Every structure is written in C-alpha cells, then in structure tokens.
Amino acid sequence: MPAANLSSLKIDDARRSGGGAGKFWRIFSASLGLLVIIGGGVFALRTRDPMVEVAAARPPVAPEAETLLNASGYVTPRVRATVAAKITGRVTGVFFDEGMNVKEGQLLATLDDSDMKRALDAAVADRNASQAAIADFQVQLKYAQINLHRTQELHDAQVQSQDALDVAKTNVDSLNAKIALAKDQVVSSATRIQEAQQNVDNCQIRAPFTGIIVSKDAQVGEMVSPLSAGGGFTRTGIATIVDMNSNEIEVDVNEAYIARVQPGQKVTATLDAYPDWQIPSHVRTIIPTADRQKATVKVRISFDRLDPKILPDMGVKVAFLGSEPARAKSKGVEKAPAAKALIPQSAVHTDGGTSFVFAVRDGKLERRAVTLGGGIESDVEVIAGVNPGDEVVVNGPGNMHDGQKVEAHP
Questions:
Q1: What's the per-residue H, E or C state across 312-355?
Q2: Are residues 102 and 216 in the same domain?
Q3: How far is CA 79 from CA 207, 210, 250, in A?
Q4: Domain annotation covers residue 259
Q5: Domain of 321: which CATH number?
Q6: φ and ψ at 43, to 5 degrees?
Q7: I need a labelling partner for 177 at 20 to 30 A (CA). Which of 38, 161, 170, 314 fits?
Q8: What distance in Å separates the CA atoms of residue 380 and residue 367, rounded to the nearest whole number?
Q9: Domain range for residue 231?
Q10: Is 299 contained in some domain?
C-alpha cells in the first residue's frame, strides 16, 4: 500500500509540471501578439497624414445699397394672349388643359368644318368645269379657224359671198372671247378655293406662340365666335396662353417720387408668396404718362433672372436702390478695395507682419499670402490670395508646412 501511494504521487507531479509549461507559452504568445499590435498601431499613427479642419471661402457680403423708394405691384407677363376663333362655329375637339406647355403652331382645338368643306368642294368643281370648258372651246376654235381659212379662199375665188366670210370670222372671234371668259372663271374659282380653304383652316385653332396654358375657356359642343353674342351661350375665347419668359413687375409710383426712378436702376423684389426671397431686378422702362385719377406713373421692372416659382399676377413688393452703397465713403475719399472672399479669422496666420493661410488642394497644403480687409463678426474679408470656394485650414497641427499631405474634414 505505501509503494502504491508513492507511485501515484510521482504521476501527479509530472502532470503538474507539464501544465505549468503550457501556461507559460500561452502567456508568452499572447504578450508577443499584443506587442505586435501595439507596434503596428504606433507605426500607423506615425505614418498617417495629419488631420486638419477646413472651411470653404465664401463670396463677400454685398454692401447694402440705400433704398430710395418702396412700392408694391404685381407680376405681369408682357406676352399674354386669349386665343379665339376667327369664325363662328361649334367646338368639336379640345386638345389641351391648364398648365400644359404648348409650342407655336400647336393644335389647340377644332371647330365643325363640314359647311366649309362643302364650299371648298363647290369651288373646286367650278374650277374644273371652267377648265373643261376651255378645252372644249379650244377644239371649236380650231375647227372655226379651219372654216375661216376655207371660206376666205372661196371668197377670194368669188365662190363664197362676203356674208359667209363674215360669219366665219365672227365664229372665231366668239370662241376666242369664250376662252378668255373661261380662263377668267378659272382664276375666280381658284380665288374662291383659297377662300374656302382658309375657312377650313380657320376651324383649327393653333397656339400663336410658345407658352403655358393658364385658362381653358371652351369645351366640346360649345359655340365660339370672335364677336360677343348676347345671352352668354357663345364663347369668345378658347384659351389663354402666357409666355413665362416675359414675366416682369408692374408697379404704380406716386408722381411726386418718380424723379427717384431711372431706367436700368437696380431693384430688389420680394414676392408676397416668398417673403424671405429677395430677387435682384432692374427698371426696364417708365411709361411716359400719368394716371390723373391716382396721380401715379406706371413703371415696369424686369427680373435679372427668371425662376419657375415666379407666376403671373403674384403680389410683389419692390425697393428701388441707390446707385452707391449706403456705407460708401463721402465724395472725394478713395474707397477701400472690394473684397474677393470671406474666411474665418482662425484660418489666418501671421509671420513677421505678413498674413497667410494654408489652403488645401489635392490633399496637400498650400501656403498663400493674403491681403486682408475688414472683419465681419468672426470672419475676415480677403482682398487677394483666396477665391470663393477655396478650402482653408481653420484648425490643424502647429507644424504645418507648404506641400504637406493632410486629411481634410469640414
């Protein structure tokens, strides 16, 4: 029994010794892997391009111009037409709807043209009959001329009497007159054909210019006429078309202040529908007449740039601006150069009295000397060195230099 116990003790010692060695190697492997990971991270951090925060240079703030006069009016198109038929007729087809874009010459509606086509057919038949009559008269004329020649020879031989010769001449002259009359009838028939064709064409109402349909004034089955008819059962228009590219502003200016308005003067327009949208505009013309009832003069203003949101008959308020900025210096004093861009003040660095910035281009830094203007809150005006849209560094490491590769983020 004691020997058995000693043997078992030796076996336990061997197992215990082997387990310690395995644990050691496991710890060693884990430590080595951790060192490799840490070393790789340190290497990556050392080789990675530094991160910099950038901001885009903005266009300079336009100086506020002095407002000389305020007025209100409406958006009105210069090109606007109510399309109507040239003849009275019943509408047989309508091929448009409100809001549809139409091109010049596009078919909008058709009228009943059955009567006009019958008149056209009759005029064509008259022309054909006159042309057939001419052919018949020419055949008769040919025989009459032969007969006249024969009668003349017999008369010269004293076989035929003078009366027979006169009859032969009369027949020739008569046929020539009939042919001339028939030709005139052909010309008259051609004129009636053109008139009848025009009446048929008038049954097709087409767009007079390119624009947008803003009003649909007739339906299939209704009577339309270019003249106003009593009772309200006859329409005078088919549709109303507006050329949106001709939209402008029409305002009434009190005649006491009309001297402040000049052609070409800058104007700021604000639509009642979009009160936060200021639209640059200018005075197109001043109508050279006054309204004695309202003591006003009509002024037309053109938008510098049209927009689909500008619709006819919208209410609008306008401010007529002075030609010089309100903050401009007094006369005789040289004005400061105009700023080209605005950048944050944190992007500006100074070296020996020279201001410069670091711009980012294609992932690299560019050191640029800049000429600065006045400050506006947290921004500064740049007169030279930076253009709107350029990205400048506003926050980065202290050892930045020209040509350095960086990773930029806003």
A1: CCCEEEEEEEEEEECCCCCCCCCCCCCCCEEEEHHHCEEECCEE
A2: yes
A3: 13, 10, 14
A4: yes
A5: 2.40.30.170
A6: -65, -40
A7: 161
A8: 18
A9: 81-112+203-242
A10: yes
Gap between the Cα atoms of 344 and 392, Å rounded: 9
- 404/137 Cα distance (integer angstroms): 104
Q: Per-residue pLDDT tens for 7-34?
A: 444 444 444 444 556 666 677 777 776 7
- Distance CA(258)–CA(352), nearest Å, equals 56
Nearest to 141 by CA among 187, 178, 175: 175
- Nearest CA among 205, 241, 206 for reference residue 222: 205
Q: Which two tokens stand for residue 51?
A: 């991160």
State whether 231 and 285 are in the same domain: no
Contact between 224 and 88 under an 8 Å Cβ cutoff? The reply is yes
| d(C-alpha 266, C-alpha 264), whole Å | 6
- CATH number at 146 reads 1.10.287
Query: pLDDT digit string (tens) for 109-162?
Result: 999 988 889 999 999 998 898 888 888 888 988 988 898 888 888 888 888 788
The residue behind tokens 């055949």 is: 139
Q: Are strands 239-242 and 234-235 parallel, antiparallel or unpaired?
A: unpaired
| pTM (global) more than 0.90 | no
E strand segments, 59-184 = 65-77, 80-83, 89-94, 101-102, 107-111
CA distance 110 to 93: 5
Residue type, 34: L
Cβ contact 61:297 at 8 Å: no
Both structure tokens of 271: 């639509």
d(CA 82, CA 202) in angstroms, rounded, equals: 16
